[in-house]
Amino acid sequence: MKYMVLLSMAETVGPPPAELMDAMNAHIGEAIANGTLLDTGGLGPTSTGALLTLRAGAIARIDGPYAEAKEIVGGYAVLDVRSVEEATEQARRMLSLHQEFWPGWEGSVEVRPVFGPPPEDGGA
Length: 124
What we know:
Layout lengths: L1 E8 L8 H16 L3 E6 L7 E6 L2 E6 L8 E9 L3 H18 L5 E7 L11
Antiparallel strand pairs: 1-5, 1-6, 2-5, 3-4
Helix pairs in contact: 1-2
């Protein structure tokens, strides 16, 4: 089953340390090799994006940064694992790398199932 992992943090934390990136790249390589990681990436700053809202029947665009946001989604991963427990363990490993290689960093990881169309082969 596919799971989306969303890494959230304060936007003002700055760039990650090189040691964290090296550790994450090693972890990513292992997860790709064993088939559990389908896609991953970091997201650019909110100042380079836009937020679209639908309120009271009107669509509006808000350009970043978003002053009211305490945390932003800074990265994501799409996993293909057997259970939410396996997805949660992968997310825990990601957080533990942040804990080890980026002292003082704070954030959260959300793990959610991805729903989509059934496989073309009917799941067989």
